[in-house]
Amino acid sequence: MQIEAKNLGMRYATGRLALQSASFTVSAGEFAVILGANGSGKSTMMRIIAGITKPTEGAVRLAGQDITTLTGRDLAKARMGLGMVFQHANLVKRRSVIANVVCGTLGRHRSLATSLGILPKGEFGHAMQCLERVGLTKFAHQRASTLSGGQAQRASIARALAQRPHALLADEPIASLDPEASEEVMRLLRQLAKDEGMAVLAVLHQPELARRYADRLLGLRKGVIAFADAPANVSDDEIDSLYEGFHPA
Description:
By secondary structure, this protein is α/β, with parallel strands linked by helices. Helices cover about 35% and strands about 25% of the residues.
């Protein structure tokens, strides 16, 4: 699945302009990373691509389908092809790791049983395969509360994979992790792009890791894409310019 953003614009009701004519494509098998300071429009862009927020201008196409025109069940169906990973793993800590992963399949099983919290037994085999893909099979039957931060984030990636997506969005997936766990997650995201042929798009605040693992860097400054190129073609000065005038609290 290819992710295509075409002339995205977003102006909030307050009048604040969050995105301006943002266009880019993430191809199948490519790992792209968005860099930018807080307030540059990264979160807005990810919410639009995920189909959570509708832009005031432009379109997002997943596998050629414009999801910005969809609503209700049609939108939910289209979004099943797009896995999501967030800054926090958001696992149900009292449940087993594999039960958490099976939760990623619930979009395919809308029934009275699942609404009551009963997980589909037929998905446990697939969930175990997803845990194997992220290196966590030996933790499958442990409570999620026993996992380290890095393990929990890998479990959340397994949960996204259980959805059987063709593309993956990761919104600051290593922001809460230590350096070793961050490296593990970045390697995994790159491997998923290469080995599974997935289009993977991540937001990061770590330019050095983005340089080492991404196929392409997208620089966002004040809602405008400043550059979109291979890491080798993006200078340190160009990256530094994204954060000029930004003073973290």
